[in-house]
């Protein structure tokens, strides 16, 4: 399969942040467009860790990113 070159406009539409949030059964990975915590910062206590993704990794799936950047240890939180 031929790999097509991504344009600058396409990379701007991709989520910039890989975030581990506190889920019902432990840490859950998410991709966010911005680190906007919303009204009153209600999301802030749910965020366990975050990373601004390099442009070359923004297209990767959550499962690939989760393997590449494992969740923080819960016993230290």
From TrEMBL:
This is Uncharacterized protein. It comes from the Bacteria.
